[in-house]
Amino acid sequence: SEELSGQVDDFAARYGLTPFIVFLTAFHLTLTRFSGQEDFAIGSPVANRRKPELENLIGYFINMLALRPVV
């Protein structure tokens, strides 16, 4: 909902985070709770291109970045 989205944005801004990091942390905590494991990696795709016009020069190439959140 718009209300929940606004609350996430406000929370992220208050602590100097991005909404992505807030959701990544919530996902990590959910996985930790239901799996019983504390150490695991979460994959996130990254294109590593800051300018969309360069995409056609090289093609659509994505790397997977393994993130290991620390709790």
* Shape descriptor: flat
User: Would you identify the regions where 5 or more consecutive residues have pLDDT less than 50?
Assistant: none
Q: SSE string, helix = H, strand = E?
A: HHEHE
Strand order of the largest sheet: 1-2
Taking the sheet with the most strands, its summary is: 2 strands, antiparallel
| CA-based gyration radius | 16 Å
- What share of the residues lie within helices? 40-55%
In total, how many beta strands? 2
Taken as a percent bin, the fraction of beta residues is 5-15%
Describe the protein.
There is one protein chain. The protein is α+β, with helices and mostly antiparallel strands and 71 residues long. It contains 3 helices and 2 strands; from the N terminus they run ααβαβ. The protein has helices spanning 2-14, 19-35, 55-58, and strands at residues 42-46, 63-67. The chain has a two-stranded antiparallel sheet with strand order 1-2. The longest helix has 17 residues, at 19-35. The protein starts with a helix and ends with a strand.
